[in-house]
Input
Amino acid sequence: MPQKKKKRAIQKRKANAVKRKSPAIQRKRRQTAAKKHEIAVIDTIAAMRRFASTARAKKKKIGFVPTMGALHEGHISLIRAAKKDCDVVIVSIFVNPTQFSPTEDLSKYPRTFDSDQKLIAGAGGHAIFYPTNMMMYPEGYATYVTVESLSSLLCGVTRPHHFRGVTTVVTKLFTIITPDIAYFGEKDYQQAAIIRRMTADLNLPVMIKTCPVIRAENGLALSSRNRYLSDKEKADAPLLCRSLLAARAAYAKGGRDVKALTDIMESVLRGGKTLRIDYIAFVDAATLAKKTTADNNTRIIMAVYCGSTRLIDNMAIR
Ligand code: PAF
Output
């Protein structure tokens, strides 16, 4: 190919690549895919409000599943639960910047809109709310919702601003979407407890439902962050679940002393060279208050670094 023609072809390819990345083209692609999957993709707050108020006017019950995308079977179980209870199921996909600290994984958090859309449509969701950061946090944004005390325990020690970001965005999503029922996974046990507290304290007219942790066959609790794990880390990660099961087994045999039960868990976790414990706590399942003696209302909650990825898990003691 002559030099000039080659240069023009390269320029054209570059221009097309830029066009493909433009928000307008991406939006059009999302809408085309949405039609194919028969699911509404709603990317403005005004349109989301219209969609929700039309559903309400028709006396439809709205179920809401908030997510940050990178969906897995855990999210799908929430959508399925919403389908059972509600007429309209709305799933939000928003990687919420205010719940990440500057040193956390906001920029590398997986963004997989196309496959998320297929999964949501496949699970029977009706609409995806997909706002931008600027819509949710425009210039001058200054209002935050904080649930005191519960947000500074457990995961709140290592992630002091995390729950404030979660409660802020969830409040905003609730006011935009006005769901009757919102669904959260028990994998984020503390998050669910905080959302319940917030909903009760602010008299928000939303029922909060939680669904059980979904695990891989090897016991690893499903999480969008599991995709960060190397092969070595993947081999170690199921030890979290195994350590919870070991504590449970010891409790079933009469073990009540939290210190001894924690030792059992730690010895299981020592089997994983890539693991570093952030915390292990035995708490009251309702109040999250720490216990020194386990009883039937105890929930075991843990966070463990697997390489540089922080994994969380929890289990009822029986
Ligand atoms: O659990 C999550 O994925 C997030 O914390 C949530 C609830 C979607 C808020 O951003």
User: Anything to note?
Assistant: The first helix runs from residue 3 to 21. Residues 37 and 122 are 8 Å apart (CA to CA). Residues 66-68, 96, 99, 166, 169-170, 188, 191 surround pantoate (CB under 6 Å).
